[in-house]
Design a protein that fits this description.
This protein is an alpha/beta fold and 260 residues long. Helices cover 19% and strands 35% of the residues. Helix 4 packs parallel to helix 5. The radius of gyration is 19 Å and the shape is globular. The protein has 5 helices and 15 strands. The relative contact order is 0.17. Strands 5-4-8-2-3-7-6 form a 7-stranded antiparallel beta sheet. It has a 6-stranded mixed beta sheet with strand order 12-11-10-13-14-15. Strand 6 and strand 7 form a beta hairpin. InterPro entries: FAD-bd_FR_type, FNR_nucleotide-bd, Riboflavin_synthase-like_b-brl, SIP_FAD-bd, SIP_fam, SIP_rossman_dom.
Length: 260
């Protein structure tokens, strides 16, 4: 609230954007789905509830991941049971060394979390995909990245990919014990918060910069839906310039969907 004589409080709404521009600047690319049998090479506990697992295999020579929020299927099999599949972000990959890195948030007791908790070098894992990529150009005037711990690998990858001088606003709902430095050449305004209410409050306090920007958010379904609604209805951000994904949903298993 402005003090008497200071004039009206500054608006938190973004300037109107051209929806055709926002739509045309992103690109969807389809990839041939291929199953790959990979071997665990290294396992690292990077924070108390995150494990970084490096996989390797000759079949990675033609692996493609064109976007930071791609997801691959991890396929877990048990004798006599139907295989279970879970979606995960390719955190980093190198076709020359035939290595793929995946980071696991140990926040549940599902098959992926259980596998990652006991993974050791020499074990095998079947990976499929990604089936496609949603490519968001890096040359927007600014980027807004919002998420919880399940989105942290994608956010970390995006920040590494952004070029020097690009402006990025980042709001992450991650427990203090799992916060870590995020490498980037971009000019980043990073805010860590603790809990869904704190995340929504942080979004409410945001003043979106001028110019053409793109917002990306991922995490729990109801929280991501609320954040998307706030950006469009309260901040006036172009709904065509938002990528919102539910990486999980309370009370449900294996939930992954794009929110419109």
């Amino acid at each position: 609230m402005a003090a008497p004589g200071d004039g009206p409080a500054p608006s938190h709404r973004a300037p109107a954007a051209d929806p055709l521009s926002a739509v045309s600047r992103v690109k969807r690319v389809r990839h041939e789905i291929k199953r790959r049998e990979l071997t665990v090479m290294r396992v690292e506990s990077i924070t108390p509830h995150f494990r970084r697992i490096t996989l390797s295999g000759e079949s990675l020579n033609d692996f493609i991941s064109a976007s930071f929020d791609d997801h691959i299927k991890l396929i877990f099999s048990a004798d006599g049971e139907t295989p279970v599949m879970r979606d995960y972000t390719p955190r980093r990959y190198d076709t020359s060394s035939r290595e793929l890195v995946i980071e696991f948030a140990q926040h549940g007791d599902g098959p992926a979390a259980h596998w990652a908790a006991q993974a050791q070098p020499g074990q095998s894992l079947t990976v499929a995909g990604p089936r496609g990529s949603f490519i968001i150009p890096t040359d927007y005037d600014w980027h807004l990245l919002i998420g919880d711990e399940t989105a942290l690998p994608a956010v970390a990858r995006r920040l590494e990919e952004l070029p020097a001088g690009v402006r990025a606003l980042v709001v992450l709902n991650v427990p203090a014990s799992d916060r870590r430095p995020l490498e980037t050449h971009a000019h980043v305004d990073l805010r860590w918060v603790d809990g869904d209410e704190a995340l929504r409050s942080a979004i409410g306090d945001l003043t979106l910069p001028p110019g053409e920007g793109y917002a990306w958010c991922a995490g729990e379904a109801s929280t991501v839906a609320a954040v998307r609604r706030m950006l469009v209805e309260d901040k006036g951000h172009d709904r065509h310039a938002i990528r919102a994904s539910a990486y999980w949903k309370r009370g449900a298993s294996n939930h992954h969907e794009a929110l419109e």
